[in-house]
Write a structure and sequence with these properties.
The protein starts with a helix and ends with a helix. The longest helix is centred in the C-terminal third of the chain and has 18 residues. It is α/β, with parallel strands linked by helices and 379 residues long. The chain has three domains: 116 residues, Roll (Membrane-bound Lytic Murein Transglycosylase D, Chain A); 129 residues, Periplasmic binding protein-like II (D-Maltodextrin-Binding Protein, domain 2, 3-Layer(aba) Sandwich), CATH 3.40.190.10; 101 residues, D-Maltodextrin-Binding Protein, domain 2 (3-Layer(aba) Sandwich), CATH 3.40.190.10. The strands form two sheets. Strands 3, 4, 5, 6, 7, 8, 9, 10, 11 and 12 form a ten-stranded mixed β-sheet that branches. A two-stranded antiparallel sheet has the order 1-2. The protein is globular and about 70 Å long. It is built from 15 helices and twelve strands.
Length: 379
């Protein structure tokens, strides 16, 4: 009877079973040279998109970045039902049989023993203890290398990460959240969020959704395929020119038509498109902000444009204060939001919770304190 109860308990705990095959689902796999999680998922499940299931099951081994796997790393490939491999199940069952606690710890052991030793006709009291229903966490995806906003190495995961966590806590402190840093921004809106791997993503700039015609399909989808939170932070986008450039007299975007504008690769361009500059100026996109400044200094670009914080930092780092100045009349303000795909059935409710928490933070002054603390750390 005891053995049967323990076996049923293991199954109820979701440990499952699976046939061991060479690099199949439901067993341990050791990383070899040339492996990637996507390639392993393709071989084990026939679908490279299942790499996230492997990542989720092995976070304690891999860390926060699914791209950082090393030769010799032992990974547990989940079974088709999402449960752990058979070897893990067997170890758990053996531990359960030895200690009569297994997956249930001390909450269940007395009840199991009582059920095992009681006569068949004796009613058994239900297990004692406090049982809270499982609450599914809200799963957020962001990326690193975006100081001071996001980064696993930053305090609290960065300013924006702390703002989001705090907003959820101020709206509903019983709702857990998970924040993952996946350092490939392009897959967030392209794959992870639309496929339901995550509920929400941040921080994302949002175009003017009343003016979609100039936008490319990717930028347009931020308006058409996603719901968004209220802005958590506003960023000034600066334009910088040589101090003797006649463009300092510019007052409207049309005054910059025909120029060469430099913005580093990977940064959004929807503001340039909606101002008519993408169609009426030459846009160049070197890899780094410093390269943009070099193009301006060499006369190969007229305007360097980027967020004001990064712009001023690069000008200072290169010792160009006074030589490169801000074209103040053409600065714009862009807002950073949390996005959720419109196909997320809980998306609107989760966005509403975020907005409610954000309003409470602003009203109490907590938003200001968090932002000030993070900005002081980067000065």
């Amino acid at each position: 009877m005891l053995k049967r109860i323990l076996t049923m308990s293991v199954i109820a705990a979701g440990l499952g079973t699976g046939a061991a095959q060479a690099q199949s689902a439901c067993e341990t796999y050791t990383i070899r040279s040339g492996d990637s999680l996507a390639a392993i998922a393709k071989r084990a499940y026939g679908d490279s998109n299942q790499y996230l299931a492997i990542f989720d099951a092995n976070r304690s081994v891999i860390g926060s970045n699914p791209d950082l796997i090393t030769v010799g790393m032992a990974l547990q490939l989940p079974c088709s039902d999402g449960s752990a491999p058979a070897a893990t199940m067997a170890a758990a069952a053996e531990a359960s049989a030895g200690s009569v606690t297994g997956a249930f710890d001390s909450v269940m052991d007395a009840s199991i023993l009582q059920a095992a030793s009681a006569p068949a006709s004796t009613p058994v009291a239900p297990p004692s203890g406090d049982f809270s229903p499982f609450v599914e966490p809200i799963r957020f995806v962001t990326a690193g290398n975006y100081s001071p906003f996001t980064g696993p190495e930053l305090p609290e995961g960065g300013m924006y990460t702390e703002l989001v966590r705090t907003a959820i806590a101020r709206s509903d402190d019983t709702r857990p959240i998970v924040v993952d840093f996946v350092d490939a921004w392009s897959v967030h809106l392209g794959e992870l969020l639309p496929q339901g791997q995550y509920d929400m993503g941040f921080p994302w700039y949002l175009p003017d959704c009343t003016n979609l015609e100039p936008l490319n399909p990717s930028d347009r989808s931020r308006c058409t395929d996603y719901d968004h939170s209220d802005p958590f932070y506003e960023v000034v986008i600066g334009m910088y020119v040589l101090a003797d450039n006649p463009l300092l007299n510019a007052r409207t975007p049309e005054d910059a038509y025909g120029t060469t504008i430099c913005r580093p690769a990977g940064y959004f361009q929807f503001d340039l498109a909606q101002a008519g500059l993408a169609a009426n100026a030459t846009i160049v996109t070197p890899d780094t902000p410093n390269e943009c400044l070099e193009l301006v200094m060499n006369g190969e670009a007229d305007i360097y444009t980027i967020n004001q914080l990064t712009g001023e930092d690069t000008i200072s780092d290169m010792g160009l204060e006074g030589q490169v100045v801000e074209l103040a009349a053409l600065t714009t303000v862009q807002r950073l939001h949390v996005l959720t795909p419109k196909n997320n059935p809980l998306g609107k409710a989760e966005i509403a919770a975020l907005n409610q928490g954000l309003r409470r933070m602003v009203e109490s002054g907590e938003w200001f304190l968090i932002v000030s603390r993070h900005l002081m750390m980067v000065q």
